Amino acid sequence: MPDLPPSRLLIVDDEVSLMEALREILSAEGYDVTGATSGAEALDCLQRGKFDVIMTDLMMPHMDGMALLRAALAGDPFLVGIVMTGHGSIPSAVEAMKAGAIDYVLKPFKLSTTLPALERALLMRRLRLKNAELEQRVRERTAELEAANRELDAFSHSVSHDLRTPLRAIAGFTEILSRRHAAALPSEARRLLELIQAGTLEMDQLTDALLAFSRLGHEPIERRPVDLAQLGREVFAKLEGEQANRRVEFAVQALPPVAGDPTLLRQVLVNLLVNALKYTRPREVARIELGCIPAAGPDETVFFVRDNGVGFDLRHAERLFGVFQRLHHADEFEGTGVGLATVRRIIERHGGRIWAEAAPDAGATFFFTLAPAA
């Protein structure tokens, strides 16, 4: 690994003998030192080359150290300044530090105090440069993400239009065929026609789910207190009407209010309760519970939706929350494979976590965390 070049110092003092003595001492310590005897000469040096640290006398004619520091830092914000002063001017040195210097050293110079001051100054410069580099990376990454979001929006609109146009044609022609010619078709042809119609409907639902999922990444969240228990009752009441000839017992615990977006949290409960209703279908009596457990800390509450359905093998739990990931065959349980991925994205956008516990034929419990309402 090649040796790093020596740090470049600019020493400014109108007393030539002091400037030259300090230049020789610090050169012997391995620094690349340039000397100047006035503020104007120092600014000329700064225009002609880059420096890491400027050490300037505080009291100089024509341009004092504070004015020089302001001009120097205006030209190079990463330059680090140290002021040099006598014992009687310490208050002025403190004022110079407010103007941009990070340290001061007293005359007559002592190597034991000057070298540590230089090390601190060089560390500060490295930190400033590293911070500027990180900020630049953040700006570049932000620009990339904004561009990606714009492309995603454009893609979503394209998908919405380009997929739905042929879907509408298929749905329309199969409807005409079914309405006008079903009686003339053999039973096998009618069965195939029904499969085409079902597939078209499924594709339309999948398109809707994908578009909704893509929008979740950058839609703003409007946080306010939300009564999750009441929200759960409202969601279940609407879903219950679709469960013809089923016995479903739904229980809601007393739940603390949470801080969140009511619309998005409603979608969480819709997806989790639809999931629970779906996978409890084989049960004579479906039991679903919305509740919470003691909080792990003051900043979050753990909620759960529990069911007595068919469950799943926890060895495959990592697939649960991925897009298009399913743990049961589509001919057993319908769905797009996007619902739980949507739930996870909403919970994570609220700063929470989600996980599941289950066993085959022993039901499933989905846990998620949310911040309590202020």
Characteristics:
12 strands, Heat Shock Protein 90, 9 helices, 374 residues, Rossmann fold, 19% strand, five-stranded mixed beta sheet
Question: What do these coordinates show?
Answer:
The protein is α/β, with parallel strands linked by helices and 374 residues long. The chain has nine helices and twelve strands. The protein has a five-stranded parallel beta sheet with strand order 2-1-3-4-5, sandwiched between helices. Strands 7-9-10-12-11 form a five-stranded mixed beta sheet. Helix 5 packs antiparallel against helix 6 and helix 8 packs antiparallel against helix 9 (339-349). It is elongated and about 110 Å long.
Q: Going across the major beta sheet, what is the strand order?
A: 2-1-3-4-5
The name of the CATH superfamily of the largest domain reads Histidine kinase-like ATPase, C-terminal domain
Question: Looking at CATH, which topology of the largest domain would you report?
Answer: Heat Shock Protein 90
Quickly name the level 1 CATH class of the largest domain: Alpha Beta
Q: Strand tally, please?
A: 12
Between the first and last Cα atoms, what is the distance in angstroms?
A: 55 Å
Largest sheet: 5 strands, parallel
What is the global morphology?
Answer: elongated
Count every helix, treating DSSP H or I runs of 4 or more residues as helices. 9
The low-pLDDT segments are 327-333
Average predicted local confidence, pLDDT: 82
Instruction: Indicate how many domains the architecture comprises.
Output: 3
